[in-house]
Automatic annotation (TrEMBL):
Residues 1-17 form the signal peptide. It holds the Pfam family cNMP_binding. SUPFAM superfamilies: cAMP-binding domain-like (SSF51206). It comes from the Eukaryota. Gene3D superfamilies: Helix hairpin bin, Jelly Rolls. GO terms for biological process: regulation of membrane depolarization; sodium ion transmembrane transport. One of its GO terms (molecular function) is voltage-gated potassium channel activity. Keywords: Signal. InterPro entries: cNMP-bd_CS, cNMP-bd_dom, cNMP-bd_dom_sf, K/Na_HCN_channel, RmlC-like_jellyroll. This is Potassium/sodium hyperpolarization-activated cyclic nucleotide-gated channel 2-like isoform X2. The gene is LOC116223525.
Amino acid sequence: MMVGTVMYALVLARITALVTHSRVSENVYKSRYDELCQYMRQYRIPGALRERAICHLASRYQGKWFDEKAILMELNEPLRREIISYNCSNLIKKHPVFKDANPLYLLELLDKLEFECYQPGELIIGIGTVGDCMYFIEKGDVEVASPGYTQILSDGSFFGELCVMTDITKRQANVRALTSCRLYSLSISSYEHVSKLFPKAMHGMETQAQQLLQNLGTSIE
């Protein structure tokens, strides 16, 4: 009887802690939401732009605010990487370039990715701008458009690789979100770090980058 009472008390305490933590993150989100609204009112941000900003906040955080980087940095490296790998499991499953990849390579790569989200109609990269990263699509559709070239990319694709994997420094196309998009970006410095450790693992993406270069009719010096 005593054991049952103790177990019940422990379970109840755990549930209470979870509910309390959930409320804390919800309250922080509400505070951030209110700050954003006050900021936009203060600077008289146009209604359409204001709505896009609010939609972005809601889509990215889904009603709860977490400082993911700070939380994960509290963990040791193996545990942090395992959690990141789990969070990115859909990304890994959908991307052919990750199929049968070296697990150590995947852990190193995933640890360098940065999550981003975009709403329909938003410009993700603009033609002629300096590129400093590439993107992997976890979920959503984007349109890649340049003079004489248009392509729709969706789950399991990546884009922006020319400025990361070749000598080209400026974007060769506009990329715009057609739907709500969940993306992961990989910076040039992170790519160089991973490619030095696992040069063969990057071969598939680098081959696609060269093929895209040919399709665009651009040459590398």
